[in-house]
Design brief:
Number of helices: 4
CATH architecture: Orthogonal Bundle
Number of domains: 1
Order of helices and strands: HEHHEEH
Helix content: 55-70%
CATH superfamily: Winged helix-like DNA-binding domain superfamily/Winged helix DNA-binding domain
Structural class: alpha+beta
Length: about 110
């Protein structure tokens, strides 16, 4: 596993919550949206995270009719998910600031 993949794995939950906050999304669509931002994640990596987020009640799933093919499961952020996203954003900013400072300093 390369460094980029390892770093992404550590922040994937927060990124998924951020996408879902923008509106209901299904798994494949979520993968495509992440890809637009340069976060290439296979569906095989996304679905276990979605399942875990559902078990933790941070998101909820709802089956909806699809314009083509079988029904799709759309995901929505719960109030607990909103709080978890806010906590992630705070932690991310703190970590990012610290790492940026460290990388820019001459030691």
């Amino acid at each position: 596993m390369n460094l980029h993949t390892q770093l992404l794995k550590g922040v994937l939950e927060g990124c998924i919550l951020a996408v879902i906050k923008q509106g209901p999304v299904y798994g494949y669509e979520l993968s495509m949206i992440l890809g637009v931002y340069g976060l290439v994640v296979s569906e095989g990596s996304i679905y276990p995270v979605l399942l875990r987020l559902q078990k933790e009640k941070l998101i909820r799933g709802e089956l909806r009719a699809s314009p083509s093919g079988p029904n799709r499961k759309y995901y929505f952020l719960t109030p607990e998910g909103e709080e978890a996203l806010q906590n992630f954003q705070t932690s991310w900013e703190e970590l990012k600031t610290s790492v940026d400072r460290l990388l820019k300093e001459e030691i």
